[in-house]
């Protein structure tokens, strides 16, 4: 097994913390126009045919019990990607019966773990009962792809687009099995720096738990069920608020989540007084092309959402200040950077400690709010235009709700995933997101 095929430490962690009730796959529900009632069936045929030609979709994950060489001394007990010898795209692309509710079907499909013995991805084609639209739900295991990599794989089975030509890669220097002795002082300093960073992150995590006031609505005993919902907002409205108050588009989108939580908690009678849940805002730290192993490397910002503040402008200012503070400190420090510690855990430690780590998520943060990049180009499948796309994030153990956000073609798409038993009223939270944007416009824009 080539060392280049090994899972990166964080990918290995995602692979090992998964359970039947907490699958670790990403999702994206794309809604397309349908030129005819048969457009959905034609789309399924296209996806299966194109998937056969995408090498990344042929990769399965298997355990590795021997370190492949001295460059990977801690790889014992890890896992690696390898081509599946019996790959059949028809096992991964499924055409469903027509439905009137794409989100209801997506929720049921998101709760099903991917089969671990095969390449861990699926595409579900959902024809609309109206005959003028269909949807495709893509599922990719987080160990196979992060949000950007999942987008690349999904785009490979959509209609070809005129993407900008990629820059040629510079030649990679040959890698040594052992380091040059002249580099040892730098390596020692780097190791000491890593230890210091780990201690800093650990202390920040401990401090982040002090004075935490969340809501029982955001935590639950896992039922293994899922419900999804989507909200579409006008990006121009978000920019109007940003220009009036300052900050970034992301600040506004996070503040909308805080305000929506306040509305939702008050409407369901849970109350928002004193509630300031910790939101984890992931930050991608993609490995350089010369890094080995390749794969996910994430950090994050941990931000208290000012749900208890009744003033919408005050909530936005609080979010903006907190995010500015996080950015000034950088993604390598603070409680949100816990995922970076995965690089310093031996592979066998991830395997043995995965179940314990999965249960610790609720001690670290209360809700995930993540942004998934999308291209500005109009995407199509079988000539049918993609009109909406809702990203879905994995739901951590003990947590009831996760929020993912994408912008596409001048609109903001919120993809919401919830434990269906704990949050039967997810549609009310979705409405609260839309209502909160209107409140911010009235409060901020003259």
UniProtKB/TrEMBL annotation:
It holds the Pfam family WS_DGAT_cat. Transmembrane segments: none annotated. InterPro entries: Acyl_transf_WS/DGAT, O-acyltransferase_WSD1-like, O-acyltransferase_WSD1_C, O-acyltransferase_WSD1_N. The keyword Transferase applies. Pathway: Glycerolipid metabolism; triacylglycerol biosynthesis; Lipid metabolism. Residues 7-252 form the O-acyltransferase WSD1-like N-terminal domain. One of its GO terms (molecular function) is diacylglycerol O-acyltransferase activity. Its EC number is 2.3.1.20. It catalyses: an acyl-CoA + a 1,2-diacyl-sn-glycerol = a triacyl-sn-glycerol + CoA. GO terms for cellular component: plasma membrane. Keywords: Acyltransferase, Glycerol metabolism, Lipid biosynthesis, Lipid metabolism, Transferase. Residues 295-440 form the O-acyltransferase WSD1 C-terminal domain. The keyword Cytoplasm does not apply. GO terms for biological process: biological process involved in interaction with host; glycerol metabolic process; response to hypoxia; response to nitric oxide; triglyceride biosynthetic process. It is an enzyme of class 2 (transferase). Belongs to the long-chain O-acyltransferase family. This is Diacylglycerol O-acyltransferase. The lineage of its organism: Bacteria, Bacillati, Actinomycetota, Actinomycetes, Kitasatosporales.
